[in-house]
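**Reference record**
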Amino acid sequence: MKLFLIVLFILNTLHLTAQEKMICFSVLSNDLSASTECRLDDKGKACALIKIQAMDKIEKVEGDIIGKLIVKGNEAWVYLKPGSTKIKIFFGKHSPIELVFADYGIKALESKVSYSLELLLVDYDYLDSLDVKIVTALADDSFDDQKYGIAASYYMNAANRGLPIAQFDLGYCYRYGYGVPQNYAKMIYWYKKSLDNGYANALCALGECYAIGLGVDIDDVKACDLFQKAIKITKGDVQAAACANLAKLYLDGKGVSPPMDRGIVLLIQAANLGCAEAQTHRGIYYLKGKYVDRNEKEAAKWFLKAAQSGSDLAQYNIGLFYLDGIGVKEDKLQAYYWFQKSADMGNASALYNLGVFYENGDCVAKNYVKAVECYRKSAEKGDVYAQYALAECYFEGKGIDVDIDKAACWYKKAAVQGFKDAETKLKQMGF
């Protein structure tokens, strides 16, 4: 395959132009280099790592850079302070480029996380010579390998040649910022093109957009119509998602007027089809006795199903159930397992509970440093319990140096959310 590395490639939805920059910037979820080859910032916090691939020699990188640029084979490694939002790259022959991470769906760099930055040019004449289905298959392979920039360019080629599934996948890329800057208007454009060309799965995706106002004005009636059509003509996960979304509209009384039990029927249908969100909601309804008789064992059953389907909320909830013996036999090891799974997906409450495990030494060796790391991630996401716990760590010097000012800062954040113990602590400290 003809694929050339260069500073950037330029294209739009119809043909190559000089109007839109396309850069592959993504998280390397399975790359531990930022941890195993760690570099600390001036505050002793582990940096983020960006691995850059480009044809032209990289002369320097500007931003919150820690240490010198490292060249490893065809990659240039650069370490940045966590929280960094952009960098500027200077080349030997080409003009410099500035990369704003938020344009690619990444708000800011995280500590101990590795990122990939590929600056690419694709040979479109070669792609045009291939069967459009082959191009889409190449796109799928690239996406699975987290080569999102390459994948987006291949989807673009196939989409412009009229393949409905490629048009849908390109819309998906624009929705989440995979290989392209996040752009809801372009997402809607390609979802509609896909639907117009007969790709039924686009019904559910467009329904979700109208239900929450993503790239379009909220239109519950339109959303309901799209979900109802999707339920009739789609299968598997898409049908399950359509059932779950329509059930939510029924239960919330939006866009529909039939009885409430229609929503329950749809929710059960979605759950039985394997929709993790519907399974989670079914667990919540059994736990709270909403729409059904309260039943902790049934709640646990559906939370476990949803957890196994990948719902971070369900993973957290079943973790709590195992921790406290609700609907299941108490099992702290199982609780730790599910909190870890949920925390890996960024769930703030799970991160806090994981921190408690490390602080107390339950199921794991007592480790205040790891506890602080978990508390910090959770606190930064707004969890009030984690904010208070992190403040306590700064106040007592657990896993981190004593810092009264930082302790007060986190106590204040917790107090603002109404945490009474934090208010009491601030008064005792004279704040």
Notes: The two ends are 65 Å apart (CA to CA). Residues 156 and 403 are 52 Å apart (CA to CA). The longest helix spans residues 236-252. The first strand starts at residue 3 and ends at 5.
